[in-house]
Design brief:
alpha/beta, Rossmann fold, two-stranded antiparallel ribbon, 11 helices, 8 strands, 45% helix
Length: 211
């Protein structure tokens, strides 16, 4: 799958148990080395993204990097949580509306990544969902309602958490409606991966961050 001209994305998955809890998300760490072994072992990779926002918060970026480096040393590594923090800093955003599909417990841990990075919250919203199927279901109208009920007055960006959430197509309409930059987990990870490989080409339709 091409992200931008001349850029290919190779993906694999780590099996995980449901429901999504801090304990089941923490178990992803053990599956990282075997998953990395599946990523075109005969080819050079320019960057690796661990694609789970809440898992990144629970396991921690340092541990994720260590597990990946066991198999692919010297390859730049990122994850959606760290990438979102860097994306918000790049855009000069200091206070966000944090919207997550998870349970309150998982949302609290995930939002701590931003708090620890000095990013404040205009509001925090969670949907209370416990499985990938549930998380992938909410669409534009669901997120519109959530944002309409949130306190956006003091925020300078909206963050839609979770790589499973189908939010890439929501970025443009939500930015147009709210006037705020919208950052999503996958979009931020794509942006950070492009930064790591030295590509800065714009990707229209995916918000201010990739414009």
């Amino acid at each position: 799958m091409g992200l931008a001209a001349g850029v290919d994305i190779i993906t694999t998955r780590i099996a995980r148990s449901m429901p999504l809890t801090p304990a089941t998300l923490a178990m992803l760490e053990d599956g990282i080395p075997d998953a990395v072994r599946l990523l075109l072992p005969e080819a050079n990779l320019d960057a690796i993204v661990f694609g789970c926002t809440s898992g990144s918060a629970i396991i921690g970026p340092a541990k994720i990097a260590q597990q990946i480096a066991k198999i692919r040393p010297d390859v730049p590594i990122t994850n959606p949580a760290s990438a979102a923090v860097e994306a918000l800093r790049y855009l000069g955003c200091r206070k966000i509306v944090f919207i997550a599909p998870y349970t309150q417990e998982v949302a609290e841990i995930t939002s701590s990544v931003f708090a620890n990075a000095g990013i404040g919250f205009s509001d925090r919203v969670c949907f209370g969902l416990k499985s990938d199927v549930e998380i992938a279901t909410p669409g534009l109208e669901h997120y519109r309602r959530a944002i309409a009920q949130a306190n956006t007055a003091t925020g300078d960006a909206i963050f839609l958490s979770c790589t499973t959430a189908a939010t890439l197509d929501l970025i443009a309409p939500l930015e147009a409606e709210t006037g705020l930059p919208v950052i999503t987990s996958n979009q931020a990870a794509f942006w950070q991966a492009l930064q790591l490989i030295g590509r800065t080409s714009s990707l229209p339709g995916f918000g201010r961050l990739l414009a």
